[in-house]
Amino acid sequence: MLDWVTYLLFKMSNSNRIKIQAIGFAIVGILGVAVVDRVSMSFMTIENHGFFGIPFCIGVTFFIVSATILYLLLRRTAQVAEEALNKLSCHQRQEKENLQLFNFALDKSADAIYWFTFDTQFFYVNDAACKMLGYTKQELLSMKLSDIDRDYKKNTPDFLMHIRQKQYVCFESQQTRHDGSTFPASISASYFCDASKEFICAFGRDITEEKEKRKLIINQNKALKNSLQDKEVLIKEIHHRVKNNLEVISSLLQMQNRREPNEEVKEALSKSQSRIYAIALVHEMLYKNSNSSNINMKSHLEKLSSAMIDLYAQNKNISVNLNTDSIFLTMDDAVLVALIIHELFLNAIKHAFVGLESGIIDIFIKNNHNGTVVFGVKDNGIGMDSTKADTNNSLGCQLIHTITEYQLNGTIETDSNHGYCTSITFKPKKSENQ
């Protein structure tokens, strides 16, 4: 009977239980007052005190007020407890939802995630780890790190201590699948501590494809490098053959020059021979230099001026000064600049020092701040009237103006003070490597 009553009270709401408890307390209190009052009445006369005397009324009033106050207090307490239970239930439900989302995110992660204690025993693995290693979750949770990564201690000395010290470590490792096959993995391991327990959270990724792609790229780069080297060798061979062919032509002109009785023809042949040499010299430098796309103009002009002195000024007391910056030009620009300097140098040797015992010729090429290059030839000879220079119709002058205006897109300036100076300004082309 008592169990049945207890069950009914448990099934009731908090408010109903409070009401029943308060009413029961009031009834018991009234009965208690009645009993006390009845006992006390035996010591008093009925004339002075009736059954519903003053003590009884006071007792009844007291217990009614007490029951009411107790009911209100218990009701408020029940409301607070019910609100707390509702909040706790809501919080637990939210925690459960968050935990489900967290577990879902971990399981669906593209990276394998496995957590283990400092004795390397796994206590959490996600679906990606199972798929990557070929084990079930139950199998992995009964295993240790050494079962899938037998060489983990070789990565660094005191591996786990190293992770604890650094807090976060990345490295590559060879891991073993369920079928015994191995694969390279990129691992990032983090240390964290929960109360007295220490854990390692590791994220792993199979990088077999990445390493294969990297290897393929390396092989492709190696093949491309070999192809470029072969191309450079071929280009140098072409320049070498062009240079040889030009030398053959120069030799033919020299042979013709020796047999030619006409002095004017001999002079024309000599000029053509030196012009061909100026062009051949560019090709010679291209196949000798490691950089097959640019010409070092300082070295080029040193060789060109030395050859022209030997050819045209052997019996003259003429010295040559080179004033050059470190300038590298493309093959096309270098050939054109060499031809112009050849003509200017030849004119200076032939015409600047008539009647003089000695002379100085300056060959210069400089970089300007605006990205242009200025080059030319200056002598300290007898000078020349600028109007005559403009109206000169010789082949050399026509060659200079044609190359400057139409091929270099440059400008020509002359100065006849203290000798004669011709300077040409142009913007050089950029090579493919620049």
UniProtKB/TrEMBL annotation:
Q: Start and end of every PAS domain?
A: 98-142
Alphabetized InterPro entries for the sequence: HATPase_C_sf, HATPase_dom, His_kinase_dom, PAS, PAS-like_dom_sf, Sig_transdc_His_kin_sub2_dim/P
**From which lineage does this chain's organism come?**
Bacteria, Pseudomonadati, Campylobacterota, Epsilonproteobacteria, Campylobacterales
Can you provide one Gene Ontology molecular function annotated for this UniProt record?
protein histidine kinase activity
Q: Tell me the Pfam families matching this sequence.
A: HATPase_c, HisKA_2, PAS_9
Enzyme class at the top of the EC tree: transferase
Q: Which domain of life is it from?
A: Bacteria
Domain Histidine kinase stretches: 237-432
Task: Please identify the protein, giving its name as recorded.
Answer: histidine kinase
Q: EC number(s)?
A: 2.7.13.3
Q: Where are the transmembrane segments?
A: 20-39, 51-74
Q: Which SMART domains match?
A: HATPase_c
Enumerate the catalysed reactions.
ATP + protein L-histidine = ADP + protein N-phospho-L-histidine
**UniProt entry keywords in alphabetical sequence:** ATP-binding, Kinase, Membrane, Nucleotide-binding, Phosphoprotein, Transferase, Transmembrane, Transmembrane helix
